[in-house]
Design goal:
The structure holds three protein chains of three kinds. Chain A is of the alpha+beta class. Chain A folds into two domains: about 1-45, no CATH class; about 55-250, Alpha-Beta Plaits. Chain A contains eight helices and eleven strands. In chain A, a hairpin with a 5-residue loop joins strand 1 and strand 2. In chain A, helix 3 (about 70-80) runs antiparallel to helix 7 (about 200-210). Chain A is globular and about 45 Å long. By secondary structure, chain B is mainly α. Chain B folds into two domains: about 30-125, no CATH class; about 125-160. Helices cover about 45% and strands about 0% of the residues of chain B. Chain B has six helices and no strands. The model of chain B has no long low-confidence stretch (mean pLDDT about 80). Chain C has helices spanning about 15-40, 55-70, 75-80, 90-110, 120-125, 130-155, 160-185, 200-225, 230-260, 265-275, 280-300, 310-335, 360-385; strands at about 10, 345-350, 390. The model of chain C has no long low-confidence stretch (mean pLDDT about 95). The chains are: A alpha+beta, B mainly alpha, C mainly alpha. The interface of A and B includes residues 86, 137 and 144 of A.
Chain lengths: ~250, ~160, ~400
């Protein structure tokens, strides 16, 4: 298919959907990722960084997490560009330090809480447009191109992981676009993970010397996180909901 | 019929006159730097949105992040600078994307979330922002006189 | 008993009509101004926060949407259950239902973070989300009620089609209200929601709120059009209203009694029923007493027929009680902190573990009121250009 520009030049059209279906690539691409809209241009999905055989997760050892340390929060702010205005109610918070105190015994522990990247995320269930989605490797994200800002995912999340952007934003980090009227949360530094790195919070925690955070592939028996989870006790937040989150906490 | 033709001619003349086009009818597209696209300008103009969406879906859903497909990469060549040599953001009508999109009246949704300038540039505050927060307090935004001076400067900026 | 054939007339243009329209248009303009203001500066200018994410606009929207399905009841009672006394009121009931739904949806859409993406919502559906089903239910409701109205109003359509159309509309509105209640009922995260009883509770609420608004609108339109409105109709409608109010009280009681029995919900129940300050006052004082027990006492305590003035009072009380109920459900459910780990107290920089404060600001209140104004304006416009109001509703004109 081709068309003519007003100046008379002929432009060859891109391969059409008919060509795509004929090539047989349609079936393979469509079953890869539900929600993908425009894969009709000859699928270069061969080098996909998302591996369905992996499940990314975090293990946080609260006994190593210092009460007065918030290096993970600062690192996330710098990495993703959500420095606040000192307004606890309306500022965006992708990650925050939380103190849990046992009502019966009085024992306190401090830990960072962020999106738990659940296996059965309530936020994905309730999103009307499907903007809240789970990648094949377990990372739960917001597709801000189709987020309409209804905040239903914020109502549904048991961990208050998502924040609404209440004001116009600019000067965004190139790998973390964010804007007014959409909802956002921890992305597990997906831009770093796809390049083979680790999240900024984990990196900064190691840099402080506390080493409370471990990142890795939960499905890989040889990874540090899988070995530690198998060997030492750990829990999920809101275990009563049975969401199977990718973030686990030890020594609560 | 004759009346219709006169009306049509008037429309074209009036809209053409409202533009600062150098050669008559059409948007005034800022010159880019660097190597031209191998596909050619006409192709890019027609298909850039489909190409962006395709790469966007690959990145978001499959984690494929080709360096030359990032929006920031576009601004390595397609940055428009003002008289002082500072890149202009999408709020300024001289911005590269606005040159055509204002002309065609097609709303650009991208820059509500994506940055519209090269990566190393520190963008100034948006005009719609409520003046609060440390970056505003540091230049005295809670002082009425400073605010008035800022507002009068904003009023006189070409926009 | 011989009755006059019901003649439907458009309401005449009077000074009263212009004055009412002017007041409503003022509220519409206020809502539009608020929308533009919030769109430009972001939701930071409203009282809604990251803890209370749904506020006054949603209270108004949910109230209007719930009332919309209930307003259709009067028509359903006539068409589906065969009570002829309500037949003359069917057309107004249908128009009011559509108008209320439009008003509620307008507020909901205009409060979105990205209302310009409504087209995105209409082309991307996630069918595991009750929100998506609601969008289909709301749109379908408009269509089905429009068909129902057409079947009643078009002389060339055989009257035998009224009953099937009415039945379809009735079933659809039950599904719609179930869907609206399930917005909250299907949220596992918060102790104030996550209850199957939300759906029947909302259906009971819709019966009550819709009828209360219907009574007030009927009286208002009859006064504007100088139509005689017999006490028999008023008495019948008001007695039905307080029956629905009793049903709402029943479901509310069942909801809270069940929650009280679960230790895990004890904190939330104590918050709403005892320690919640504003929420406790709204629950007991406004929702239960003013909106529930007082209307019951006023109507069931008298044997004489209900007068027009008493009907207005009772309807007004039910509406105020209803708004308080929706506020307690929507905002109260969010204000109570979530337990991140059962058995542990939580505290953080994100206000975990604290009861969230909510102070509505003018933009969001104006938006909510604009939705009400839109519903009333649309109803008045419908009554003005369409023949939906009977010309004579006096008592001798009622069958039996």
């Amino acid at each position: 298919m081709s068309f003519r520009m007003p100046n008379g030049a002929k432009v060859e059209d891109r391969p059409t959907r008919r060509d795509f279906f004929k090539s047989g690539a349609a079936f393979a691409t469509m079953t890869l990722a539900p929600g993908v809209t425009l894969m009709a241009f000859g699928g270069s999905a061969a080098s996909a960084a998302v591996d369905a055989g992996k499940r990314w997760g975090l293990l946080i050892d609260t006994s190593k997490c210092a009460d007065d340390c918030d290096a993970c929060v600062t690192a996330c702010k710098t990495e993703n560009g959500w420095e606040g205005n000192g307004d606890a109610e309306r500022d965006v918070q992708w990650i925050r330090k939380v103190t849990l105190k046992n009502k019966a015994t009085g024992h306190e522990s401090s830990m960072p809480v962020m999106c738990q990247h659940c296996e059965s995320p309530p936020c994905v269930d309730v999103c009307p447009t499907g903007a809240s989605f789970k990648r094949e490797d377990g990372i739960v994200l917001v597709d801000k191109h189709i987020c309409i800002g209804c905040r239903y995912c914020m109502m549904a999340c048991p961990f208050k992981a998502r924040s609404f952007v209440h004001e116009p934003v600019n000067n965004q980090k190139p790998h973390a676009p964010r804007g007014q009227g959409t909802v956002e949360g921890c992305t597990l530094c997906v831009h770093r993970v796809d390049a083979g790195g680790i999240p900024a919070c984990v990196e900064s925690c190691s840099a402080t010397g506390n080493g409370a955070m471990v990142f890795g592939d939960l499905l890989d028996p040889s990874s540090e996180i899988a070995q530690r989870l198998a060997e030492f006790p750990s829990v999920a937040l809101r275990p009563d909901l049975d969401l199977n989150p990718g973030v686990r906490y030890a020594e609560i | 019929m004759k009346l219709a033709r006169i009306f049509l001619a008037l429309c074209i003349i009036l809209t053409g006159g409202a533009l600062s086009a150098a050669d008559g009818v059409g948007p005034n597209i800022p010159q880019a730097t660097g190597e031209p696209h191998p596909e050619g300008n006409d192709y890019m103009r027609r298909w850039h949105m489909e190409m962006l969406k395709h790469d966007r879906d690959l990145t978001m859903y499959l984690g494929v992040r080709p360096a030359d497909a990032s929006l920031s990469e576009c601004f390595e060549c397609h940055t428009v600078r003002d008289e002082a040599g500072t890149p202009v953001t999408v709020e300024d009508e001289r911005h590269f994307c606005r040159a055509c999109h204002d002309y065609t009246a097609v709303r650009v949704d991208c820059f509500d979330c994506h940055r519209s300038t090269p990566v190393d540039f520190d963008e100034p505050a948006l005009h719609a922002m409520i003046l609060r927060g440390p970056q505003f307090r540091s230049w005295g935004a809670d002082d009425p006189e400073v605010l008035l001076a800022y507002l009068s400067q904003v009023m006189t900026e070409p926009n | 008993m011989a009755i006059d054939r019901t003649l439907y007339r458009e309401i005449p243009v009077t000074n009263g009509l212009w004055a009412s329209a002017a007041v409503l248009v003022a509220f519409l303009l206020g809502a539009f101004a608020s929308f533009v203001y919030v769109e430009h500066h972001g939701h930071i200018v409203t009282g809604m926060t990251n803890q209370i994410v749904w506020g006054m606009p949603h209270v108004f929207a949910i109230f209007l949407i719930v009332a919309a399905s209930g307003a259709l009841n009067v028509a359903s009672i006539a068409s589906v259950f065969g009570r002829m006394a309500y037949k003359p009121l069917s057309r107004l009931s249908g128009v009011l239902a559509m108008a209320l739904l439009a008003g509620g949806l307008a507020v909901l859409v205009l409060d979105l973070g990205r209302p310009d993406r409504l087209i995105v919502q209409m082309t991307h559906f996630n069918f595991t989300s009750i929100f998506t089903w609601n969008i289909l239910l709301y749109s379908g409701f408009m269509g089905i009620v429009a068909i129902y109205l057409w079947v009643q109003m078009d002389r060339s359509v055989d009257p035998k089609w009224t009953k099937p159309a009415g039945l379809a509309a009735f079933v659809w509105r039950l599904a719609l209200t179930t869907g609206t209640g399930s917005i909250f009922g299907w949220l596992v995260a918060r102790p104030g929601y996550d209850a199957a009883i939300m759906a029947p509770l909302f259906i009971a609420m819709s019966f009550a709120f819709g009828l209360a608004i219907f009574i007030l609108v009927l009286q208002g339109l009859c006064r504007l059009a100088d139509t005689p409105l017999g006490q028999g109709t008023i008495d019948r409608l008001t007695r039905l209203l307080v029956l629905f109010v009793a049903v709402v009280l029943y479901f509310t009681a069942v909801q809270h009694l069940t929650n009280l029995y679960a230790q895990e919900h004890a904190g939330f129940e104590a918050f709403i029923l005892k320690e919640g300050g504003l929420y406790t006052t709204l629950f007991w004082g406004v929702q239960v007493v003013l909106g529930g027990l007082v209307p019951l006492a006023l109507v069931y305590g008298r044997s004489a027929p209900v007068t027009a003035g008493l009907a207005r009072l009772v309807s007004g009380l039910v509406i105020v009680g209803g708004i308080a109920q929706v506020y307690v459900i929507v905002v109260g459910g969010q204000a109570y902190p979530m337990e991140l780990f059962p058995g542990y107290e939580v505290s953080s920089s994100f206000l975990d573990g604290e009861v969230a404060a909510y102070a509505p600001r003018l933009p969001e209140i104006a938006l909510g009121l604009g939705g009400v104004a839109l519903a009333l304006f649309a109803t008045g416009l419908g009554a003005k250009v369409l023949r939906i109001l009977p010309s004579n509703l006096s008592d001798h004109n009622l069958p039996g």
